[in-house]
Amino acid sequence: MNFVKAVDERRIHQIFELSIWLKGAHALIECVGGILLYVVTTDAIASWVNTFTQEELIEDPNDFIAGYLSQMASHFSVASKEFYAFYLLSHGLIKLLLVVGLLRGKLWSYPASLAALGAFMIYQVYRYSYTHSFGLLVLTVFDAVVMVLIWHEWKVVRQHKPA
Asked: Residue 133 — φ and ψ, nearest 5°?
């Protein structure tokens, strides 16, 4: 029976590590996106989106996605760009710090990660109430799963660490 429990714990730990690595990859993407938003002008963004959607809109002027992207790019203000740049960069840096702490088994990182993910999830649900973005729901569910894994891992680590 102990062997089966050890195998289960090892599998849960592997899933925990994989989820933390995925969070780390997502955090890096957010950091890169935030930096890019800081250095790229709103005119360049609008031009890039228009180039990207132009053929589709010529082919089908009523294309919902291309039309939406084109409209969003034309209304993308400097203030919005700076907000998203700050949000992505700060969000990514916080998550990177927590990921490093979790992968190194630092005890402070477990409750800090739970608090940060909880706060991010509250904000994501708040944003969902305005945007109804399916991606926010997926991210929130993934964060909830990661929180359960962090909580479980924290319990295991505390049991095995000397007092």
From this structure: -80, 120
Can you say whether the dihedral through the CA atoms of 66, 135, 73, 34 is positive or negative? negative
Residue 123 near residue 140 (C-beta atoms within 8 A): no
In this predicted model, what pLDDT tens digit does every residue of 17-67 receive, in sequence order? 999 999 999 999 999 999 999 999 888 888 888 888 888 788 888 888 888
For residue 140, the SS3 value is: helix
With a CB cutoff of 8 Å and minimum separation 6, the contacts of 30 are: 88, 89, 91, 92, 95
pLDDT tens, 119-161? 999 998 998 898 888 888 888 999 999 999 999 999 988 887 6
Handedness of CA 135, 141, 144, 150 (dihedral sign): negative
Exposed / middle / buried, residue 78 (Cβ in 10 Å: 0-12, 13-18, 19+): exposed
Pull the structure tokens for residue 61. Answer: 């002027």
pLDDT exceeds 70 at position 103 = yes
Tokens of 128: 């969902």
Q: What is the reported pTM? A: 0.74
